[in-house]
Amino acid sequence: MSWFSDWKEKRAKKKAEKAATAAAAPAKKEAAASSAPAAAKGAKAPEFIADSPIDGYVPGLGAPPGGKINIAIYWAAACGGCDVSLLDTDEKVLNIGDMSNILMWPIATDGKEKDIEALEDGEITVAMINGAIRNSENEHMARLLRKKSQILVSYGACACLGGTPALANLVPGGVNEIKDYVYGVTPTSANFIADGGRKLEDVMPRPEYNAPEGTLTLPVLYDTVKTVDQVVDVDYYIPGCPPTQKSIAALLDALVGFVYRGEALPPKGTTVGVIPKSLCEECHRHKENRRITEVFEPHEVLNIDHDLCLLDQGILCLGAGTIAGCGAPCTKADQPCRGCYGPPKPVSEQGSSIFTAIASLFPIEANDAKMNEDDMDDIMSVIKDPLGYFYAFSMSKSLIKRAVNEGGQ
Amino acid sequence: MAEFEPKIVAFCCNWCSYAGADGAGVARMQMPTNFRIIRTMCSARVDPEHVLRAFSKGADGVLVLGCHPADCHYIGGNYRARRRIALLRMVLEQYGFDPKRMKLEWVSASEGEKFQKTVIEFVDTIKALGPNPVCSKEA
């Protein structure tokens, strides 16, 4: 409850403040539009900063002393949420405009691969790659951006851990099985083939096609989805699905300091926006260490206790094996942590460390000593799809990495 | 080609199975030499990560040996362990491993004979299964 009321209060406060500033300055819109000079004079900008969860727009920054820097943002195998998340920084995104030329940002600007290729090595100051490395184009662009940029940021859960695309690693037949299914078995494809009297080869994408005008090529899908740092050298990591405003703001602040005042950047390999503890430290819920015998999806529990640990309520929450820093927005909204921030620092295998913890929540039965291992399998089978659930984000970083075939096929 | 000799990692609880293995050695019981013992303080000390790491580094089979239920030195360690191992068995199956590649067995300090029997049976199982699929994939 507390979160909801907090949020309501904050919302009301924000509204009241907005109304007050609007009344005090009827020309608010104008002031915001010509932000730099107005903010330098007036009291409005600092007020906004105080209210904002992040530091807010640093007004009147202008171009850096050494000229604008170049920034490139690229999406590999991603949903696009990371690309959009950069806009979550609200007005702070304007600082990016002050500071830099955006050479590539698939969702917002029209950057082309050939423009990047034409640059000198190291001409891009910061390149951010979101998404996993799923095909040959992703790998090519990652290598290209690494070559052309001074700082490479692995941005988002897919880039850092493999994320949802990496669950494709669990298809035993690899890419061929996926393609056969998508282009041959799914109803839309199957109907398309049947209706037109076509064959599977007609609809199956070919990596190369000889047209009269020349050879056309398509990227090749990989059997194993990789993280960005498994392909190229990465300087900074920003985990999250998508990264929170705070993480992005932290990176931006570091960049602003570096570009304008020549301040030192964080050491290479830093994970931005995390706190080296488990998410439980940040979560507002209290724990009663209850034992569970059944597990539920959040929608199956009618009255979720807003202050009690979700694991105590039988909802599988991955917070215990996930690094903190996000502010636990999911558990505040009665949803379990899914582990998008990755494991806490000393842990390498996120999935197994969580199911180790969760297995310990199952109570010891009175006749436990008389049970055999098949009974244990029955008890634990209340957890469906443990691999997909506990490794939902970290498959590429897991020890086994992909499905295996017994018999050495 | 020479016969396939599996590499097996055996995690033995300090209080029973390790002593049981010791007893088997002192009694000069004959058994295959394909296993390497790692002593742990309890079967519950065996993190599933240890087992996964063994497989990812090329172990063909993993044995987890602990005290009999109701006999744990730490009262409830083996109860925890067997629940974890049950989940891990599901995970290994989902990866595509044959679940028989990992075995949980209870061997007490006096059961040198059971240790011998367990090892002989497990080595036979793994020999029938063939090499670790993670390795054969890379090769």
Structural class of chain A: alpha/beta
- Flag low-confidence runs of chain A: 1-5, 22-54
**CATH topological fold name of the largest domain in chain A:** Rossmann fold
CATH superfamily of the largest domain in chain A: NADH:ubiquinone oxidoreductase-like, 20kDa subunit
Strand content of chain A: 5-15%
N to C succession of SSEs of chain B: EHEHEHEHH
Overall number of structural domains of chain A: 4
Q: What is the molecular shape of chain A?
A: globular
For the largest beta-sheet of chain A, the strand count, sense and barrel status come to: 5 strands, parallel
Shape verdict of chain B: globular
The largest β sheet of chain B comes out as:
4 strands, parallel
Strand content of chain B: 15-25%
Contiguous runs where pLDDT drops below 50 for at least 5 residues of chain B: none
Q: Return the CATH class of the largest domain in chain A.
A: Alpha Beta
Q: How many runs of DSSP E, i.e. beta strands of chain B?
A: 4
Could you tell me the CATH topology label of chain B.
Rossmann fold
Number of domains of chain B: 1
Describe the structure.
- The complex is a heterodimer of chains A (409) and B (139).
- Chain A has helices at 2-24, 28-33, 35-41, 44-51, 81-85, 93-99, 113-117, 136-148, 157-161, 174-185, 187-195, 200-203, 245-261, 329-332, 350-359, 373-380, 386-390, and strands at residues 69-75, 100-104, 124-130, 133-135, 149-155, 208-211, 214-217, 221-226, 236-238, 275-278, 323-324.
- Chain A has four domains: 10-51, no CATH class; 69-162 and 227-261, NADH:ubiquinone oxidoreductase-like, 20kDa subunit (Rossmann fold); 171-222, no CATH class; 276-397, no CATH class.
- Chain A is an alpha/beta fold.
- Chain A is built from 17 helices and eleven strands.
- In chain A, the strands form four sheets. In chain A, strands 2-1-3-5-9 form a five-stranded parallel β-sheet, sandwiched between helices. In chain A, strands 4-8 form a two-stranded antiparallel sheet.
- Mean pLDDT of chain A is 84; it is low at 1-5 and 22-54.
- Chain B is an alpha/beta fold.
- Chain B has one domain (8-134): 3-Layer(aba) Sandwich (Rossmann fold).
- Chain B is 45% helix and 17% strand.
- Chain B has a four-stranded parallel β-sheet, sandwiched between helices.
- In chain B, helix 1 crosses helix 4.
- The radius of gyration of chain B is 15 Å and the shape is globular.
- Chains A and B meet through helix 15, helix 16 and helix 17 of A and helix 2, helix 3 and helix 5 of B.
